[in-house]
């Protein structure tokens, strides 16, 4: 039997949207750049909307039907999930995404399903593993290069860690599109795989997993397809 292309789930929002004569209607939304990158890399993309009733059993049901997952970018993870007081800069929480994506992060780890975490997705993976986040990065680094203005991506180099899977995919150094004001501080079970010049952790991976990698930047808006190709290749092999 021909297996066909792998199926990659992309986590999403439920957001009010308008199209045609329909105005302000709740819709399951993800920026199409994620879909395009996944499909250009040779997979079938499936949007996975958040569920207010998400739990670990539901997440396992979801991931059992997928060959890989992209934990997509989005709003800040609720600080209460890592037992921290809320910084004034933290965005309004989205409990449906938080509960769904935390459960999917745990379920994919249990199933050893290939995962690529992107920006918020990296932070979700860290928090789901018991890690902590830096709630407002400019307080430490003293600049806004990682997120220069609303809806404006920055660009800066990151250096990969020798010997990591990320280094094998991207090489020693790469310029990345960036839009985040938070970062991962602690990451149980993951090893650092890239850093910015200001000592911000830019990527992490689980060296014991089949493919479990997360980056703080936004590869979906760039022109470098290698991370998505690596995910799809892993998903194809994992099948």
TrEMBL record:
Pfam families named among the record's database cross-references: Peptidase_C26 (PF07722)
Keywords: Hydrolase
Keyword Transcription regulation included in the entry's annotation: no
Entry GO MF terms: hydrolase activity
Alphabetical list of InterPro entries matching this protein: Class_I_gatase-like, Peptidase_C26, PuuD-like
Keyword Hydrolase (UniProt): yes
Protein name from the UniProt record: Gamma-glutamyl-gamma-aminobutyrate hydrolase
Lineage of origin: Bacteria, Bacillati, Actinomycetota, Actinomycetes, Micrococcales
């Amino acid at each position: 039997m021909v297996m066909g292309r792998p199926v990659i789930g992309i986590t999403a929002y439920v957001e009010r949207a308008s199209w045609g004569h329909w105005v302000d209607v709740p819709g399951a939304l993800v920026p199409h750049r994620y879909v395009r990158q996944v499909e250009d890399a040779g997979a079938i993309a499936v949007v996975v909307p958040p569920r207010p009733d998400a739990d670990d059993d539901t997440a396992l049901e979801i991931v059992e039907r997928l060959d890989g997952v992209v934990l997509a970018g989005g709003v800040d993870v609720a600080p209460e999930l890592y037992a921290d007081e809320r910084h004034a800069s933290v965005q309004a929480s989205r409990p449906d995404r938080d509960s769904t994506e935390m459960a999917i992060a745990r379920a994919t780890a249990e199933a050893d399903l290939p995962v690529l975490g992107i920006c918020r997705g990296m932070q979700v993976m860290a928090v789901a593993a018991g890690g902590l986040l830096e709630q407002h990065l400019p307080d430490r680094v003293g600049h806004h290069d990682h997120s220069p203005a609303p809806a404006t991506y920055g660009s800066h180099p990151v250096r990969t860690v020798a010997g990591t899977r990320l280094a094998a995919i991207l090489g020693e150094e790469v310029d990345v599109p960036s839009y985040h004001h938070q970062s991962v501080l602690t990451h149980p079970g993951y090893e650092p795989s890239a850093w910015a010049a200001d000592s911000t952790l830019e990527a992490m991976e689980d060296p014991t997993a089949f493919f479990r990698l997360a980056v703080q930047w936004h590869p979906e808006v760039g022109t470098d397809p290698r991370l998505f190709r690596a995910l799809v290749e892993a998903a194809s092999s994992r099948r």
